[in-house]
Amino acid sequence: MINPLAPETLIQLADQYGTPLYIYHTEKIKEQYQRLKTAFEKTDAVFFYASKALTNINILRYIKNIGANVDCSSINEVKLALHAGFPASGILYTSNGIAFSEIEEARQLAVIINIDSLSNLEKFGEKFGHDYPVGIRLRPNILAGGNLKISTGHDKSKFGIPVDQISMVLAVVKKHNMLIRALHIHTGSEIEDADVFVKGIEILFEITHHFPDLEFIDLGGGFKVASKPGEKETDISLLAEKVSSAFARHPYKNGKPLKIWFEPGKFLVSEAGFFLTRVNVLKKTRAVTFVSVDSGFNHLIRPMFYDAYHQIENISNPGGPLKNYAVVGNICETDTFAWDRSLNEVREGDYIVFRNAGAYGFEMSSNFNSRFKPAEVMVMEGKTHLIRKRDVFDDLLRNQMPLPLIL
Ligand SMILES: *Cc1c(COP(=O)(O)O)cnc(C)c1O
C-alpha cells in the first residue's frame, strides 16, 4: 500500500493553492487498478473506469495510461474520453434514459454502446439492424448497494430493461436481426457483498442462450470502499473467486467463453481524493458547537444527497484534545457535513480535510449561492500540479446574456 498524503503535505498545498481545494493522489488510483487486475488475473476481466466519478482530463489521461478502459454516462463524457486519448474501442457508453440522437452520435464516434430501454433498442434495430454490435442494459430486479438512493437494480429502479421483459427484448432483437454482443447490469453503488454479483450472473446466465453473438457479460461497478475507520470494503479477491466460479458453473454453450467486464468508479478514485477546507467560524451554542467551513454542498454534496460518510480531520491541530462538533458549510440552506463528529480541538482558520473525496466530489459541485467551484490539484510522483483553476468572478457571468432593455 502506498503512503497516503501526509497532513503536512496537505497543509502545504492548502497554503499554496488556497481552499476549498480538491487534491488527487494518482498513485492511489494506480494501486486500486492494480489490485483489481491482480485479483482478476485468471479471469482476464476488463475494467472500464466509470468516468462520471471524476472527469478531469488529466485524471482521464492518467487512467488511460495505466491501462483501463472507460465507461461513460453521457455523450459529453464520451467526447471527453476521446479528447483524453482513449481509443473508441475502449470507450463504453452505458445509456440511461438518453435521447436516441445521442446513441446515434455514439455510433458515429464508433464507441461501444449499451442500450437501456425497449424504445431505443427498437430504434437502434430499425436503423442499424445487424450492422453494429450493441449491448443491452438489463434490470435484474435485485436490491443491492449502500442504501436505496444508490441502488439501481431493484424492481422499482428506472435503470435498465427489466429482465422480466426479456420476451419483448427478444422480439425486437429478432425482428431486426440485431447483433447483441453484451448483457449489462449495474445494481448499485457500495456493494459490499460479493454474492450480489454472483446473483446477477445467475440471472444473466438464464438468458444468455438467447444471444448467439454474445461475447461480454458486463457486471457494472459499485465496489465498496471503506469510508469509516474499520469499515469493510468489497473483498476483491473473494469477489474474483466467486465470479470466476460462477462463470465456470455456466459454460457458454454457443462457442467461446464469455469475457467479464466491470465498470468501477468509486473504487478507483474515491480514496485518492482529499477535499481541503478552512474554518471560517466556530459557533458555540448550548447544544452544539458548529464548525463552519469555507464550503458546503455546493462543493461536496454526498453527505447531504445520499447520507455519505466522509472521515473528517482537523489537520491543523493534530495534538489537540478531542471534542464534538457539527461540521457545516456556509451555504444558505441546511448543509451539514457531519453531526456529532469528534475532532481535535478546532480553531478558526484551521484546515479541515474530508477523506475519500475523489469520487462524486468535484464532479457534483455547483455554483450555488454564486460561489466559485474549487480548484483541483493532482499529486503525481511526488510533484503537484494544478489541474483546474478555481473559478473567478467572470465564470459566474460567462453564459449570461444581459439584456440592454433592462439596463
Ligand atoms: C455510476 C456507474 C458506475 C460506477 O459506480 P461506482 O459505484 O462508482 O463504482 C458503473 N456503471 C454505471 C452504468 C454507472 O452508472
- Separate helix tally: 12
CATH architecture title of the largest domain = Alpha-Beta Barrel
- Helicity level: 25-40%
Number of strands: 18
Which small-molecule ligands are present, each listed once?
Answer: pyridoxal-5'-phosphate
What general outline do the C-alpha atoms trace? globular
- Cα(first) to Cα(last) distance is 60 Å
Could you explain the architecture of this structure?
This protein is of the alpha/beta class and about 400 residues long. It has two domains: about 25-265, TIM Barrel (Alpha-Beta Barrel); about 275-395, Lyase, Ornithine Decarboxylase, Chain A, domain 1, CATH 2.40.37. Helix content is about 30%, strand content about 25%. The chain has twelve helices and 18 strands. The strands form two sheets. Strands 1, 11, 12, 13, 14, 15, 16, 17 and 18 form a nine-stranded mixed sheet that branches. Strands 2-3-4-5-6-8-9-10 form an eight-stranded parallel β-barrel, surrounded by four helices. The longest helix is centred in the first third of the chain and has 14 residues, at about 25-40. The termini are far apart. It binds pyridoxal-5'-phosphate.
Key words describing this protein structure:
407 residues, alpha/beta, TIM Barrel, Lyase, Ornithine Decarboxylase, Chain A, domain 1, 9-stranded mixed sheet, 8-stranded parallel beta barrel, 12 helices, globular, binds pyridoxal-5'-phosphate
